[in-house]
Amino acid sequence: MRTAIAYAEFAAREAHGVSPVYERLSYAVSRDDTILDLLDTLPPRKRQPNLLFGVVRFLGGPVEEPAEFHNYTVANWSAIVAEMRARATQTNEAGRCAVLLPVLAALPQPLALLEVGAAAGLCLYPDRYAYRYGQHAIGSGEPVLECAASGVAPPTVLPEVVWRAGLDPNPLRVTDPVDVAWLDALIWPEHTNRRARLRAAVSVAAAEPPLLVRGDLVDDLPALAARAPADATLVVFHTSVLYQVSTARRDAFTAAVRELPGHWVANEAPEVLPYETLPKPPVDALHNVLALDGTPLAWTRSHGQQITWFG
After folding, report:
1. Which of 94, 162, 165, 166 has a 20 to 30 A CA-CA distance from 8?
2. What's residue 14's pLDDT?
């Protein structure tokens, strides 16, 4: 029952108005007892829609029609479940830099960036991308990250980044075609602009691959943070990562990151990283909360397409 509810909520709150294919498919799975029974053989954190749909796409299966998806999934479950156990939803969306930029540009420069849950590290290049907030453009080249911003003046300068590193239990390499193919499979079917953005961001990162360390977000964070240059402002940040760990590990991470010098930028769902008081979201869709050093600042959409400052 919990898995069925999760798929129905994904359809209503995340896919609605964003991906008709995944909205239709997720509602279908929420009513498909056969697939729900298969999913319930997995640990709860491995049952999520993005992981299942991404793995099916990665293996070349259909997602556009629920009946075809059902037949493929049942017939190929052994291969699908092996990939679901081995992989994680590492949606390395460079577009998220657009909602991080107002905070990063306002911090004392230069910056030493450390991303927790970095995947391939594409969000470690906010200084290399171009942005468009309505009519306001900043930066040049590709990709161009578009974001609807309200309640905040768009930044006028890009941050200066002198060090960039990522921490992830399974880091991906931008130079590995299989890793890039997994990132591509996680992009929702209709989002051709995001697919083009992925290719452009991969090109940027491949020209100067980031320092990516395989490790735990609590146990290995202090040692990696200690490698940052002392004359730069350390910024530890993460987006849509903490839902993948237990509440106890989230609490341990929060305690660990507060002990570090510099700043902490979080961009997580409010039920994952809660705050005492928050204004009502602008619409009834899934939003993250952008926060600096534990203080909530804005609602953001999960792919960086919108930011609504609290004022």
Report:
1. 94
2. 87
Give residue-wise pLDDT tens across range 220-243.
999 999 999 999 999 999 999 998
Angle at 152 between CA 191 and CA 293, to 5 degrees: 90
Nearest Cα to 64, choosing from 115, 112, 37, 28? 28
What's the confidence (pLDDT) of residue 234? 98
Are 241 and 264 in contact by the 8 Å Cβ rule? The answer is no
> What integer pLDDT is reported at residue 18 of this predicted model?
87
CA atoms of 28 and 160, how far apart (whole Å): 47
Tokens 């600096």 sit at which residue? 292
What stretch(es) of the chain map to CATH 3.40.50?
Answer: 94-309
How far from chain centre, in Å, is Cα 76? 28
Contact 141, 130 (CB under 8 A): yes
Q: Residues of the chain whose pLDDT is less than 50? A: none
d(CA 253, CA 247): 10
Contact 94, 123 (CB under 8 A): yes
* pLDDT at position 303: 86
Q: pLDDT tens-digit profile of 131-190? A: 999 999 999 989 999 999 999 889 999 999 999 999 999 999 999 999 999 999 999 999
pLDDT of residue 21: 97
Look up residue 301 and give its amino acid: R
Q: Domain 94-309 belongs to what architecture?
A: 3-Layer(aba) Sandwich (3.40)
The CA distance from 273 to 291, in Å, is 10
CA distances from 210 to 118, 135, 164, 205, 227 (A): 10, 31, 6, 7, 14
